[in-house]
């Protein structure tokens, strides 16, 4: 069984497909990889920058929150008593010393005014220097009067921070019964700036504000957080003031060290408070991953489409070649009754059409060669037959000649001998060209017969050429027909003796000139023109007058080309000249092997 010529590693289909895919797929993969890497990096940076901006915005809002409650605490110095602004500290100091019953009302009015200035204020306290205090709350909870308010550490910090705003981290309202919501506390001392003679004034009380964590909720509500994202507000002691994970509020902050989280941090400008964000990367970049996944699917579809198109195009390109190859194998096996179906008008269609045309022409040529071979065999058979006929003719003529000699008819014997030589020369197959010497001998044998017939008083023959040219080649039987025409058409119609001259000379450019002229009756202009036309056309209507010239002319043209042939000139009552120009050569052309006689 013959091996498959379309093995995968040698198939043009596989090569073209791989080339097509390589040219299209590799750049697509490289471009896709670079694009995905660039896009994903850009989206990650964009998301990171977005969260950094949100944390920065949150830190600024925290600073603003401290500024707001600092300003609220300063309302003590602008709150009016008795129609005069800034008298609260002096009034409290005076009423406290005089134990004025209006002291409670004065503090209560101030607390009530402040409590409702900001919605996130949960409760307010005013603590007198003697430890007594008054409070108001928005919550429906009762104050635990047994609780030592304020805490000792609050007192110490407020004492140290005499004129500033003190801040106490997120804590539970233990001083209210049943309160569960954590709060932050701000405090500020109230000094008597008007009634005291001291530089800083006497402290007449301390104002405390409990602020609910809703203030942080308002700050961070603009941040879009995922379920596993966590934000922290951490003070300078590491205490978590606020977190979206409520259970972590009030505990010590510990950073998540997992690589699954993006860690960002932003400090406030005024209060040493850190805004910390821990964002879960999978959720943070979920949309990015979804977009990348979508792009990857699109790229995959493009790759599949490219492969499908490459296979389809390669198969469409290689199928006609395979078809031609299969039909070519049939032709190689000798089956010429095959044809490739032409389906397209492109180059492959032209190739298929050319193949069909080639097979048809090849079949025609083979048929011609086959017929030629048959004809050649027939010619060889005829040649074998012809070998017998001249041999029989030569022997018969020899018997007749010997009989004539025996009867003392010597002239008849000589004529038979000359005829025998003539026939032998004429019937000697195979030679296209002979030497001038051989052609000269044949002319002499022919002329001897003519002399015997017409007598020496009517005919004369004159040869004029150098002995060096005797071995040069000349077409066989090229002189005898011309000499015969000169005798019958030139000299015989003439009264008296006529002479035929044969001249051979060497010309420049390695050419040989053979001239046969006679002094016969010549030809008229019309007759000469008629002969020239027949030589040019290669036809003879008057076979008795010009067939010999036409035969010689056609054989010279066939041997040497159209630049050579017979030229004829004649003048009436003067004579005729026939000239042959051929290449000078000493090679004798023999087309087939000469048979023996």
UniProtKB/TrEMBL annotation:
Positions of transmembrane segments: 12-36, 291-313
A GO cellular component annotation in the UniProt record: plasma membrane
Limits of the HAMP domain: 315-367
Alphabetically ordered keywords of this record: ATP-binding, Cell membrane, Kinase, Membrane, Nucleotide-binding, Phosphoprotein, Transferase, Transmembrane, Transmembrane helix, Two-component regulatory system
SMART domains cross-referenced by the UniProt entry: HAMP (SM00304), HATPase_c (SM00387)
Subcellular locations according to the entry: Cell membrane
GO molecular function, one term: phosphorelay sensor kinase activity
Keyword set includes Metal-binding: no
InterPro entries on file: Bact_2-comp_sensor_kinase (IPR050640), HAMP_dom (IPR003660), HATPase_C_sf (IPR036890), HATPase_dom (IPR003594), Sig_transdc_His_kin_internal (IPR010559)
Membrane topology summary: Multi-pass membrane protein
PANTHER family for the chain: SENSOR HISTIDINE KINASE YPDA, SENSOR PROTEIN KINASE HPTS
Name this protein carries in UniProt: Two-component sensor histidine kinase
Source organism per UniProt: Paenibacillus pectinilyticus
């Amino acid at each position: 069984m013959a091996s498959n010529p379309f093995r995968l590693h040698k198939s043009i289909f596989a090569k073209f497909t791989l080339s097509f895919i390589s040219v299209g797929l590799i750049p697509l993969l490289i471009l896709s990889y670079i694009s995905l890497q660039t896009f994903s990096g850009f989206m990650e940076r964009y998301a990171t920058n977005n969260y950094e901006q949100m944390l920065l915005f949150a830190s600024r809002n925290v600073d603003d929150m401290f500024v707001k409650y600092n300003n609220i605490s300063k309302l003590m110095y602008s709150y009016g008593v008795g129609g005069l602004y800034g008298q609260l500290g002096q009034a409290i100091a005076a009423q406290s010393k005089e134990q004025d019953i209006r002291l409670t009302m004065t503090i209560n009015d101030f607390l009530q005014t402040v409590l409702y200035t900001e919605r996130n204020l949960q409760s307010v306290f005013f603590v007198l220097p003697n430890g007594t205090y008054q409070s108001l709350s928005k919550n429906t909870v009762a104050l635990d009067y047994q609780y030592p308010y304020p805490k000792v550490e609050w007192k110490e910090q407020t004492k140290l921070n005499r004129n500033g705003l003190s801040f106490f981290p997120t804590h539970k309202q233990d001083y209210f019964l049943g309160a569960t919501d954590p709060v932050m506390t701000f405090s500020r001392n109230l000094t008597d700036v008007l009634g005291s003679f001291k530089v800083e004034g006497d402290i007449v009380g301390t104002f405390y504000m409990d602020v609910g964590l809703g203030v942080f909720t308002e700050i961070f509500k603009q941040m879009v957080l995922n379920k596993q994202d966590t934000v922290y507000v951490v003070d300078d002691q590491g205490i978590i003031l606020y977190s979206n994970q409520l259970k972590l509020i009030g505990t010590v902050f510990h950073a998540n060290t997992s690589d699954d989280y993006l860690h960002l941090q932003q400090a406030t400008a005024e209060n040493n408070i850190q805004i910390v964000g821990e964002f879960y990367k999978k959720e943070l970049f979920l949309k990015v991953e979804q977009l990348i996944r979508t792009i990857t699917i699109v790229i995959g579809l493009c790759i599949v489409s490219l492969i499908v198109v490459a296979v389809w195009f390669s198969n469409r390109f290689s199928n006609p070649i395979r078809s031609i190859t299969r039909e070519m194998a049939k032709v190689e096996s000798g089956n010429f009754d095959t044809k490739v179906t032409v389906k397209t008008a492109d180059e492959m269609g032209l190739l298929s059409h050319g193949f069909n045309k080639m097979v048809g022409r090849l079949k025609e040529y083979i048929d011609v060669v086959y017929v030629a071979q048959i004809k050649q065999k027939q010619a060889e058979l005829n040649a074998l037959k012809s070998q017998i006929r001249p041999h029989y003719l030569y022997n018969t003529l020899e018997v007749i000649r010997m009989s004539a000699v025996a009867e003392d008819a010597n002239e008849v014997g000589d004529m038979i001998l000359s005829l025998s030589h003539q026939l032998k020369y004429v019937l000697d197959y195979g030679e296209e060209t002979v030497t001038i010497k051989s052609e000269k001998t044949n002319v002499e044998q022919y002329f001897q017969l003519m002399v015997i017939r017409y007598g020496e008083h009517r005919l004369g023959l004159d040869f004029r050429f150098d002995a060096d040219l005797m071995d040069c080649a000349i077409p066989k039987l090229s002189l005898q027909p011309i000499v015969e025409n000169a005798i019958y058409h030139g000299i015989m119609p003439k009264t008296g003796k006529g002479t035929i001259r044969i001249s051979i000379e060497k010309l420049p450019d390695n050419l040989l000139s053979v001239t046969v002229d006679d002094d016969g009756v010549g030809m008229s202009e019309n007759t000469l023109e008629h002969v020239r036309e027949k030589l040019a056309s290669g036809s003879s209507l008057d076979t008795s007058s010009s067939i010999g010239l036409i035969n010689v002319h056609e054989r010279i043209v066939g041997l040497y080309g159209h630049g050579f042939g017979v030229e004829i000139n004649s003048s009436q009552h003067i004579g005729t000249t026939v000239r042959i120009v051929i290449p000078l050569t000493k090679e004798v052309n023999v087309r087939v092997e000469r048979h023996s006689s």
